[in-house]
């Protein structure tokens, strides 16, 4: 399907883009000079640093702070983007938090926080912006999930459950929006060199690496390349897919 707006003139919103995978995604889109919205919650200076990096590549960049657990704050973010004529053609629901520990030790507050950030936040952002995509008969929604949303992980029941829910959200919404020219996919990485891995000891990281056939962790930029591919106009026949770049860890 042909969309009137060239890819380089489209707008992409990336949640949780002040660091890690989100920052790498922003930089990948910046390479073609797109309009980029860098969302963050508290990391103001880190978000500005990524914004400056993207602008050096020729991108038009806006940073915006919002708690994605809050419907009210998401709507305020939407108003800000509308005022700047930066309603997204592409949404990358990347913001997420992890949780390690036995399920027997999990509190209700732990459960609510992990579900709200990883799952509810993606729902709220998608719901807020998808109407514009449906109206223009074109759009890309890309959810950043996890390998644990596919296979599950011991001592990561909350995180696995939230990402598994995100995968189901992806598949169901893809069917709902396909007639409107909007694709919905999820990228479910294996182990990636980000702050989420900072809680592991060196011997634990070595054990994980030894289980991965390619023998290393992924870089955030490798994940960003897949997100970028799914956002391209020529990827319009790919929808409802959970694609896991994991180095052969899970096949």
Automatic annotation (TrEMBL):
Pfam families for the chain: adh_short_C2
PROSITE patterns: ADH_SHORT
Enzyme Commission designation: 1.1.1.100
Domain Ketoreductase, residue spans: 10-190
UniProt KW keywords: Oxidoreductase
Statement: the UniProt record of this protein carries the keyword Oxidoreductase: yes
Alphabetical list of InterPro entries matching this protein: KR_dom, NAD(P)-bd_dom_sf, Sc_DH/Rdtase_CS, SDR, SDR_fam
SUPFAM superfamilies xref list: NAD(P)-binding Rossmann-fold domains (SSF51735)
Keyword Oxidoreductase: yes
Top-level taxonomic group: Bacteria
Gene Ontology terms for molecular function: 3-oxoacyl-[acyl-carrier-protein] reductase (NADPH) activity
NCBIfam families: EF_P_mod_YmfI (NF047420), PRK07231.1 (NF005559), PRK12826.1-2 (NF009466)
Protein family according to the UniProt entry: Belongs to the short-chain dehydrogenases/reductases (SDR) family.
Protein name: 3-oxoacyl-[acyl-carrier protein] reductase
């Amino acid at each position: 399907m042909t969309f009137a707006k060239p890819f380089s003139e489209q707008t992409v919103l990336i949640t949780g883009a002040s660091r890690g995978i989100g920052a790498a995604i922003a930089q990948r889109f910046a390479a073609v000079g797109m309009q980029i919205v860098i969302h963050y919650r508290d990391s103001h200076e880190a978000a500005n640093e990524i914004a400056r990096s993207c602008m050096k590549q020729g991108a038009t960049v806006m940073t915006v702070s919002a708690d994605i657990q809050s419907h009210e704050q998401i709507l305020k973010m939407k108003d800000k983007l509308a005022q700047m004529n930066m309603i997204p053609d592409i949404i990358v629901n990347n913001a997420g938090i992890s949780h390690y520990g036995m399920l027997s030790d999990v509190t209700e507050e732990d459960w609510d926080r992990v579900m709200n950030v990883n799952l509810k936040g993606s729902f709220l952002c998608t719901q807020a912006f998808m109407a514009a995509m449906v109206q223009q008969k074109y759009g890309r929604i890309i959810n950043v999930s996890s390998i644990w949303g596919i296979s599950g992980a011991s001592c990561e029941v909350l995180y696995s459950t939230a990402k598994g829910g995100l995968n189901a959200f992806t598949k169901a919404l893809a069917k709902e929006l396909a007639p409107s020219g909007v694709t919905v996919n999820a990228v479910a990485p294996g182990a990636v060199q980000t702050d989420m891995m900072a809680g592991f000891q060196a011997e634990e990281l070595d054990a994980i690496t030894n289980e991965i056939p390619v023998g290393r962790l992924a870089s955030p930029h490798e994940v960003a390349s897949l997100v970028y591919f799914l956002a391209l106009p020529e990827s319009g026949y790919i929808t409802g897919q959970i694609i896991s770049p994991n180095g052969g860890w899970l096949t």
